[in-house]
Amino acid sequence: MNYQFDFRFLEGSFGALLDGLRVTIELAVASNLMGLVLGFALCLLAMSRWTIVRWPAQLFIEFFRCTPALLQIVWFFYCVPMMVDVFIDPILMGVLALGLNLTAFNAEAYRAGVQAVPKEHLDACVALGLKPWQRTMYVVLPQALRTAMPVLMTNGIGSLQQSALVAIVAVADLMYVGKSLATEAYRPLETYTVVALIYFALSLPIAKLVHVIERRQDLAVKR
Amino acid sequence: MQLDFSAVFPYWLVLLKGLALTIAFTGSCAVIGSLAGFVLSLLRMSPSRWMKAATTLYVEFFRGTPLLIQLFWVFFCFPVVFHLPLPPYVSVVISLTLYMAAITSETFRGTLKSISAEQHDACIALSLSPQAKILYVIFPQALLRAIPPLLSNVVSLFKESALISSVGVADLMFVGQNISNSTAKPVEFLTTVAIIYFLVAFPLTRLVGVVEMRLLRRYAY
Hints:
The complex is a heterodimer of chains A (about 220) and B (about 220). Chain A has a single domain (about 10-220), classed as MetI-like (MetI-like fold, Orthogonal Bundle), CATH 1.10.3720. Chain A contains 8 helices and no strands. Chain A has helices at about 15-45, 50-65, 70-85, 90-115, 120-125, 130-160, 175-185, 190-220. Chain A is globular, with a radius of gyration of 21 Å. Chain B has about 220 residues and is mainly α. The chains are: A mainly alpha (about 220), B mainly alpha (about 220). The interface between A and B is large, with 42 and 42 residues.
């Protein structure tokens, strides 16, 4: 290999990459907030006693889990404006698509957590005369959140990576900026390497944190 | 707005061809990738620190970056680095395989850990060579226990394979998007493509549960 690496041309585009990075982080954080909140709600719906509530929730989960994220994003960008006939901000649309995708995955993660709540706790809630919403908010949610945390965080990293897909529908995130820089400067090797390293640097600390939490949970179970 | 799903039917053959390509790519990369993933997981548990560090870095890197950028990297950078022109489908197979190897190695690592220490001791007591131990004792068990998570990995690979449309391989996603652009009927065609993906992936995810219940209870534990 006798290729001359030249990272200097990237100095001038530092600001552009930073702007892209900001959009990527915005997308990831917003979709994660959405996924964490709506995921729990969807999980409760999917575990509901009534079939008429359970089935649509289940269908939603399965549909988002069994189709490609790219297709969901493209679908949202092409079809939603056509169907509702209004212009929606591309970033908002990206958050919506990524967030709903994450909601489906998080609902599955929460489900395991909710099922792990001991039945005695629910009985205790009845004995204490707690209302159903109090039981859900103060007894079930904290415990489910704790059990599901590693999976939720892994899903969160996944959502950060899925956010690169919005580049295909021309939202100016990190991936999109990298793509246009690579084409402009005709130096794909350096640009894509740098962009990949930025994504890696974002997700590695979270992945390490997940390992730490998992290890501590394993220890707690053994004790 | 008016939806007209009958417009989809004249294109069923093209969509089917796209699906065939998607499945071909998924299948081949799943097989090669899982084998590579198994080897990778063995290397990751090797006593050599360098080997461990290198394979861990590989796995973390491929799990920690978007597949899209891996695809672009292989597609644009391999020809520059190695001075050989790669047809799109080769670079796609390379990157999907590298990705699959990284995610399945984590799966195998989990199942390798679940094989009890007594079995390793027994292999020593029977004085099996390391190759024989891996080939006849460890691999069959690890593979059997890994089937359910491997199936989930295949489902995610199947979904992620939609990304290969972005480097111009005419898979189901590419075909669907092309038709929806040229007919200006995105809602009908993209929805149809989504349903096709769903119809393939959903039974596979159900299969995971069935395999877990039936197969594993009978043979693995």
